[in-house]
Amino acid sequence: MTTSDDVRAIALSLPETTEKIAWSMPTFRVAGKMFATLPEDETSMAVRCPKVEREELVLAEPEKFWVATHEASSAWVRVRLAALDDLDELRDILLDSWRQAAPAALLE
Q1: What's the CA angle centered on 84, arms 43 and 86, to 5 degrees?
Q2: Which pLDDT belongs to residue 40?
Q3: What is the rounded CA–CA span in Å between residue 75 and residue 53?
Q4: pLDDT category, 108, cuts 50, 70, 90?
Q5: CA distance 81 to 7
Q6: 80: β partners
Q7: How many helices (H) and strands (E) does the chain have?
Q8: pTM over 0.85
Q9: Per DSSP, what are the bridge partners of residue 30?
Q10: 90: Cβ–Cβ under 8 A, 6 or more apart, which residues?
C-alpha cells in the first residue's frame, strides 16, 4: 500500500521540487507551481490533471480517482493512496502532474 511518505519521497526526488505547507497541508511545487498536495489525513493526494482526462479517470477507476467539490472547476483530481497498485503507478501519476507544472527547460 502506498503512503504519504511514498508521495513525499517520490515528489521530492523530481528535479527542483520543494515542499511547502499551504492551507495547513503539505504541497509540492516545481518552479513555484504546485503539482501535488497531501490533503486531509494524508490518505489521498491531489494532482494536476486536464479536465478531459480527469473525467475519463474518474469514470474508469472511481475507487482510485475522484474530484473534490471545491476542485470541480479546476484541473485537479484526487487519488486514494491505498487504491494504487504500486509505487510505479504512484510515480507515474506524480511525474505526469510534475510535467504539467514544470518549466520547459526542465522537460528537455
Answers
A1: 115
A2: 82
A3: 9
A4: confident
A5: 9
A6: 44
A7: 4, 6
A8: yes
A9: 17, 33
A10: 2, 6, 7, 10, 81, 84
Residues 6+ away with beta carbon under 8 Å from 100: 35, 48, 49, 50
Residue closest to 36 by CA, chosen among 64, 69, 14: 14
* Model pLDDT for residues 14-47, shown as the tens digit of each residue: 999 999 999 999 999 999 999 999 998 899 999 9
Taking alpha carbons only, the member of 108, 94, 12, 5 closest to residue 49 is 94
Residue 77, C-alpha cell as written in the block: 483530481
φ/ψ (deg, to 5) at 45: -140, 160
d(CA 13, CA 51): 26
**How many whole angstroms separate alpha carbon 46 and alpha carbon 44?**
7
Residue whose entry in the numeric block shows the C-alpha cell 480517482: 65
